[in-house]
Amino acid sequence: MRRLVVAIVCVGLAALAGCMEMEQSATPSKQGKYQGKPDADPWTSEPLAMGPKWKKDDRASWEEQIKKRQLGQHEDRRIYQ
Question: Is the pLDDT confidence value at 80 over 80?
Answer without folding.
Answer: no
